[in-house]
């Protein structure tokens, strides 16, 4: 194997080691993605609770209020998520 072959082999191994090391650390995009996932799960749970309220034989007003609360919670969580993403991206 010539010098070029050895150099290519070393570079490939070095690149592979860097790739593996990069995969182990959680970067800002991964952290932001997890926060987005968590926020979406909370919003989904709130909406499911609101849907359960609608399915029950309660007044339509209560169901509407539950939906309004769920929407406000989702909006607030989305705002917080945006701030977290922006803060994470700055760091």
Low-confidence stretches: none
* Main beta sheet: none
Distance, first to last CA: 45 Å
Overall spatial form:
rod-shaped
Number of domains: 1
The secondary structure category is: mainly alpha
Strand content: under 5%
The total beta strand count reads: 0
Q: How much helicity do the residues have?
A: over 70%
Radius of gyration: 24 Å
> How are helices and strands ordered from N to C?
HHH
| Whole-number mean pLDDT | 76
Number of helices: 3
Main attributes?
91 residues, mainly alpha, 3 helices, 89% helix, rod-shaped
Q: Which helices and strands, and how do they pair?
A:
Elements: H1 3-24, H2 28-55, H3 60-90
What would you note in describing this structure?
The structure is a single chain. This protein has helices spanning 3-24, 28-55, 60-90. By secondary structure, the chain is mostly helical. The model has no long low-confidence stretch (mean pLDDT 76).
């Amino acid at each position: 194997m010539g010098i070029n072959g050895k150099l290519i082999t070393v570079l490939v191994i070095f690149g592979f080691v860097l790739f593996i090391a990069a995969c182990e650390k959680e970067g800002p995009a991964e952290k932001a993605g997890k926060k987005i996932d968590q926020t979406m799960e909370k919003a989904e749970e709130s909406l499911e609770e609101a849907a359960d309220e609608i399915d029950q034989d309660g007044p339509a007003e209560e169901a509407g209020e539950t939906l309004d609360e769920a929407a406000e919670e989702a909006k607030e969580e989305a705002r917080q998520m945006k701030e977290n993403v922006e803060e994470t991206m700055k760091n």
